[in-house]
């Protein structure tokens, strides 16, 4: 069974810990993206799975077998890197066949495998060309073809699309996803592009400073962020995070003060367990309803900047309570700079984080 499991793996380089106690398991046919800002330890984690880096502690299991001491070539993993080196003097077909040379297959079997992956990746017309005669998108597909032409235990991709232009990335995301869906292999993809992770992954592991902060489906990490970091990292435009003081909680509604202004919002039962009154309120830009009359469930604001985004408009509004707030409204909502707004947060999409940044949720 194609599975990947890492158990409490840590990697230190001298005094520096690049990955701390990371746990993750990837099932057969599952695609997990490691997502996070530059330097958070994504590539180091992937390299430990591949065997290119040795874990300082913890275990790496592939297909149920402990791999810690095995060299990369003994792990039977297929890797696709950001820089896909193709042999310039070999045809595309010969390039795709390279990983098969160690497998002692007959010529017919090799040809059959090349044809099969060429069909999957729409490369049949370019098999006789040289790498200098194909496009960047085709080169990327050749790199994927070379990985899937064998029957590896699992797939590891390191920023596979980062060299492609925006349009090509968009189409390649869909194509790689489709190919992976048909293969029943455990796959880990490293990316710092959240759109790539949200569209390609079954689950996303979000990393920061060597720690896995949350693992969940694209919907879970977006709708139920575990902490302030995940909340601010996922979603465009970024979630509004407003400092507040919790005054009281009646079992359903929390009464807060935001820089002296009162705001009542419905809140999770776990709010009653909060020890400190300092909290952070998280509200997505699309989770506000502008209303005519202000009351204790609205935030007063003034339109400062208007950014058309096609079907929607991004409003930067100045508030007395927490600096600038980003609000997304539909294009037909005509607003003017300086206009006063009363913004009612959608209670189902309002998050409360405690003073350590963890979400308050039962
Ligand atoms: P990026 O998206 O920029 O590639 P990343 O999340 O993949 O970032 P890593 O490449 O895993 O990050 O690096 C994590 C940290 O470990 C970084 O601070 C990096 O400088 C450090 N690091 C990685 N490899 C080594 C090494 N061989 N020696 C010392 N430090 C290293």
Describe the structure.
It is a single chain. The protein has 362 residues and is of the alpha+beta class. It has two domains: 4-226, P-loop containing nucleotide triphosphate hydrolases (Rossmann fold, 3-Layer(aba) Sandwich); 240-353, Nucleic acid-binding proteins (OB fold (Dihydrolipoamide Acetyltransferase, E2P), Beta Barrel), CATH 2.40.50. 21% of the residues lie in helices and 36% in strands. The chain has eight helices and 20 strands. The strands form four sheets. It has a six-stranded mixed sheet, sandwiched between helices. Helix 3 packs across helix 4 (136-148). The radius of gyration is 25 Å and the shape is elongated. It starts with a strand and ends in a 9-residue tail after the last strand. 40% of the residues are buried. The model has no long low-confidence stretch (mean pLDDT 91). The structure holds adenosine-5'-triphosphate. Adenosine-5'-triphosphate is lined by residues 13, 16, 18, 36, 38-44, 192.
Question: Main attributes?
Answer:
362 residues; Rossmann fold; OB fold (Dihydrolipoamide Acetyltransferase, E2P); 2 domains; 8 helices; 21% helix; binds adenosine-5'-triphosphate
